[in-house]
Amino acid sequence: QPRINGRFAALPAFTRLRPHIAKSNKSNDTNDMANRVVDLFWGDDAHNKNPQDFFKSFDWAMHTKDDASKRRQFLNWLHSGSIAEAWFTGLAEEVKADWTLVEEAFNARWPPVAIAVLTEDEFEEALLGCRLQDDKLGLKEVVADREVWSHIAWANKMGRLAAGAGVLNSRTYLSGVRKALPNIIKDKLAKHYEDWSAFLVDVRVIDLEYIKGRADELQKQKVLNDAFSLHIQRLKRLDSGATTTSTILNRQLSSLNLNNNNRIQTGAQYSGVRPPPNAGSKAPGRVITADARAAFRGHFNLLPHHPATDAGRLAHQAQQKAWFEANPSGVVTELTPYPLQPGTASVNSSECFKCGMIGHISGNCNSARPLLANKQRWRAICANMLRELRSAGPVNQEVQGQWGFGW
Q1: Lowest mean pLDDT among 118-132, 133-147, 161-175
Q2: Which of 119, 148, 301, 354 is most buried, by CB atoms within 10 Å?
Q3: What phi and psi values does residue 143 have, to the nearest 5 degrees?
Q4: Partner residues linked to 84 by β-bridges
Q5: Is the dihedral of CA 46, 48, 49, 51 positive or negative?
Q6: What CA–CA distances, in Å, run from 241 to 32, 230, 275?
Q7: For residue 137, what are the CA distances in angstroms to 90, 131, 154, 161, 176?
Q8: Is the pLDDT score of 15 beyond 60?
Q9: Are strands 140-143 and 146-149 parallel, antiparallel or unpaired?
């Protein structure tokens, strides 16, 4: 520092010296790699470590090292006394001398695990079976560690399924899916869409406050309906031998203070007027006549039941597409035969309605891939309408090609 008349002179602020701090040439990625912890590798299934993940972690930690360093260090990353250590020490010396050969030997010993990818037919099944429930509207779901509103999560999932089924840029199945949506969502959508992309965009942009408000109203109405149903059940339990159920219901319902401004709904709206004398009696069950059964036998097997082959699945997809175009409501009845899943049992063969196979009933079914609700309903309808024929053996429904049980 300079002196003036024997005293130190103050330097201007901009000339004062500051300590020099050397900047590291290492990137954040490098520091992250150095701090990353890699578990030692066992090489067996008991420790639930994906071999390919271990190798990637090792390669990540050693990214600045040359191949010779990787060869020398690799043994230190294998757990002592493990299958992996025994494998590496047993390699030929010429293999251990070349890192590329070590990597090839590792992949041969622990090959990459192929994930189970859904087929186009399975994507189609999932697409038709994915429903947006009323009680989920206005709520959040956790998707990929992120909270997402339920209708947006549904739209994102349907987009992936439609793309997997190969129908994203068409309107295949779109009409039936739209009709199955809750009214809260359906009321905000157009009547017609040219493709799935435009349809899903409109679902995502529906006003959230509108959805939450309508969902809250729906929940309040559900509470009223549940309370009314519970009250009816309690009244039925009061029935005695001297007093019929209908008499109790008439007396109790007439005492309820129900007016036009405070109605409780049970399917149809209750008018507030005392029920007629026979309101509590049970409606007689439907009697299936011989003519109705004969008419049903004439058309129930109009749709061929295809085998579980590539050609059979393609034909099945065409059947489903045609069915939804002809029945946009998506409701299965005795007059609307629904295509059977390829490779499953014939109808009316004492099969399980849930999975379509023989050997158990629906209540005992443990299948991880149950049939769509429409397919289950159609099998139940056939069993009811064709019950009198069961003693003669399964119905001879047309099956093309060789049977198989794959999906």
Answers
A1: 118-132
A2: 354
A3: -125, 120
A4: none
A5: positive
A6: 80, 22, 22
A7: 60, 12, 10, 20, 20
A8: no
A9: antiparallel
The torsion angles phi and psi of 146, rounded to 5 degrees, stand at -130, 140
Confidence of residue 151 (pLDDT cuts 50, 70, 90): very high
**Whether residue 247 has pLDDT greater than 50:** yes
Q: Is 101:62 a contact under the CB 8 Å cutoff?
A: no
Please state, in angstroms and rounded to a whole number, the distance separating the CA atoms of residues 378 and 407: 19
Residue 278: which pLDDT band, with cuts at 50, 70 and 90?
A: very low
Read off the pTM.
0.40
Alpha carbon 279 to its chain centroid, in Å, reads: 42
- Rounded CA-CA distance 134/96 in Å is 61
Cα 189 to Cα 163, 195, 280, 353, 363: the distances in Å are 21, 13, 40, 34, 39
pLDDT digits (tens, 9 = 90+) for 209-225: 999 998 888 888 888 88
Residue 231 CB-density burial (10 A; 0-12 exposed, 13-18 middle, 19+ buried): middle
Handedness of CA 71, 72, 73, 76 (dihedral sign): positive
Reply yes or no on whether the pLDDT at 270 is more than 60: no
The rounded Cα 65 to chain-centroid distance in angstroms is: 45
CA–CA separation, 49 and 40 (whole Å): 10
pLDDT at 288 (0 to 100): 77
Identify the CA nearest to 342 among candidates 291, 304, 368, 373: 304
